[in-house]
Amino acid sequence: MTFELLKIDAATGARRGRLRTPHGAVETPAFMPCGTGGAVKALTPHELETEGVQMALCNTYHLYLRPGHRLIEELGGLHRFMAWSGSILTDSGGFQVYSLAPLRQISEEGVSFRSHLDGSLHFLSPELAIEVQKSLGADIIMPLDECAPYPSTTDYLQRSLGLTLKWAERSRVAHLNGQPALFGILQGGTDKALREQAATALQKIGFDGYALGGLAVGEPKAVMYETVAHTTPLLPVDRPRYLMGVGTPEDLVESVMRGVDMFDCVMPTRHGRTGSLFTSQGRINIKGAAHASDERPLDPACDCYTCRHFSRAYLRHLFMAGEILGLRLNTLHNLHFYLTLMQQIRQAIEDGSLTAFRTRFLEEAGTLNRDETVA
Amino acid sequence: MTFELLKIDAATGARRGRLRTPHGAVETPAFMPCGTGGAVKALTPHELETEGVQMALCNTYHLYLRPGHRLIEELGGLHRFMAWSGSILTDSGGFQVYSLAPLRQISEEGVSFRSHLDGSLHFLSPELAIEVQKSLGADIIMPLDECAPYPSTTDYLQRSLGLTLKWAERSRVAHLNGQPALFGILQGGTDKALREQAATALQKIGFDGYALGGLAVGEPKAVMYETVAHTTPLLPVDRPRYLMGVGTPEDLVESVMRGVDMFDCVMPTRHGRTGSLFTSQGRINIKGAAHASDERPLDPACDCYTCRHFSRAYLRHLFMAGEILGLRLNTLHNLHFYLTLMQQIRQAIEDGSLTAFRTRFLEEAGTLNRDETVA
């Protein structure tokens, strides 16, 4: 993997770059949709390509449990399995163990847990996380870490970061060769000193890119933005920076302005399936009775497949009737919104107009972070 | 609507024809997928077009209850609502009232029932069925009838047919002008004398096409085929013949050979959603463990999107994981199978090779009517 920095916005520090992996270029700042269990929910890989997705995230936890990384490896790897020719970043599985799996127990050695699917007992170590991700054939892989809950005491955060750093070192050793790219994950919650410690320790080990973990876990937005702003200057300029699991459209804009290059989030796809739809005029809950006879497209400013062909009234009908097509059309629209936003952000950095773009975007789509009142 | 008969197969009586509606040509014999509630489940209208669908069936019962025919009419009609530029045939709503709605009561005047959605009380008369379908803007509409269960006594069938014929007459009167096309529905179960009576009475009223209702409701296949074979010669040569709610791929071949021009059935789409997939080598239940590591496409002889890009192993994984994409890919494949079959049937009639096609088809896909043994 290579990372080329094309421009740094003088006013904000926002970065315009280009990752290259064995599966092509990824223009940054980039948004990666979540292909949790080997599919971005409701969409085909060719729709992702059409929408301009260049890298998808897949979840090691899900694929390890079902259908199993060995099977995927035997079948030629994850790209071939899901017929996706773009790049893939996999996470370590840790976050899902902490959020989905029952009876998890963290020790120095790793984390034991039961499968949320069948209750079977498993043990994930930093070494196994690397092995699984290499079996899958991802382009960028992540080390096992502990994502501390918010709020945590400084003492807990300190011990947790200590474990994450030890695991980072073991992951680096387990990785052996330079393929695929391995990122380091900074933890430390919202504690600036701990974030500094993480940045220093991880760079000493040396990684191909650096991720900010443990954010967007309940802390106030302002605190998250401040933590990002404090942390990114501690990272090497020539390596990509990835803010994990973030976020709302506003979060993307704000974080790019604080020096982040990569994002992933279930928000556009999950919200699509619950009928919460992003538009240039704010967020719409398509269930609302107000849309029942509304002939307009979701977003007159949008040129996605959904908005070019279907009315709000039809989308509401599909949603109320539980039609799969509704979930498809909603997901496609939300993903298009996110990818268009990233395209606009990249353009604004190139044009030197990011600050103006941010102001305009937040004015027009000021309700993006909250649902409209359902009629 | 016009119907042009292009060729009658001398050996079998199978017919190659062309319907023309205000929404284009429909090559017959034709299969209409079910767009029950204003969407062919899991598919976009543009996928239908790509697959070669020329006419879709929509269910009056579903659309009358949700979102309501008046709303669809206000929004410019069903074609515009669902963004489908091909032809639409709507049923009368009767069949769904009998099969889905609780507390239905049939009288001379019509049928009262409660909505399966919210329990609300409704009354469907022959006149209302026509009015609703005209509001929707369908290209071909159907009169309210009674579909007698199987088995029924001759006495019941006789009285039921009497009601259906009275309703047919009232529907013809309610229809007033010639737009859209109105078909008559023959009932009479598997009683040949009653089918003859139905054919005579309906032609006396005069319809734009003739449908065989009340079949594929539990009677043995051989009896259904015999009833079809007995009835089609009683119908005018120059009008299309529609076998309602049929059927398996084998049913389509056998019924075309007995003079049927049009079909609809939920089978390809519903079976797609349950993982039962049609192939040139028989039916496959994708849930089967035997497919877990199978790299082959569903059907190596198939050129559908699903078979061109994905392995059985991936399709099984998607199905087991409950991924919406699996339902999409399965549905697309099954529909492609049905439409390819109809294309082959039309070609075989043109080539005068239908009998040979039937033999080969049933040999190769001999297991199409039953599931494979699930491993």
TrEMBL record, chains A, B:
Cofactor(s) needed: Zn(2+)
Active site residues per record: 91 (proton acceptor), 264 (nucleophile)
Record protein name field: Queuine tRNA-ribosyltransferase
Organism: Candidatus Methylomirabilis limnetica
Classification via InterPro entries: ArchSynthase1/Queuine_TRR (IPR050076), TGT (IPR004803), TGT-like_sf (IPR036511), tRNA_ribo_trans-like (IPR002616)
Region: RNA binding, residue numbers: 245-251, 269-273
Family per record: Belongs to the queuine tRNA-ribosyltransferase family.
Function comment: Catalyzes the base-exchange of a guanine (G) residue with the queuine precursor 7-aminomethyl-7-deazaguanine (PreQ1) at position 34 (anticodon wobble position) in tRNAs with GU(N) anticodons (tRNA-Asp, -Asn, -His and -Tyr). Catalysis occurs through a double-displacement mechanism. The nucleophile active site attacks the C1' of nucleotide 34 to detach the guanine base from the RNA, forming a covalent enzyme-RNA intermediate. The proton acceptor active site deprotonates the incoming PreQ1, allowing a nucleophilic attack on the C1' of the ribose to form the product.
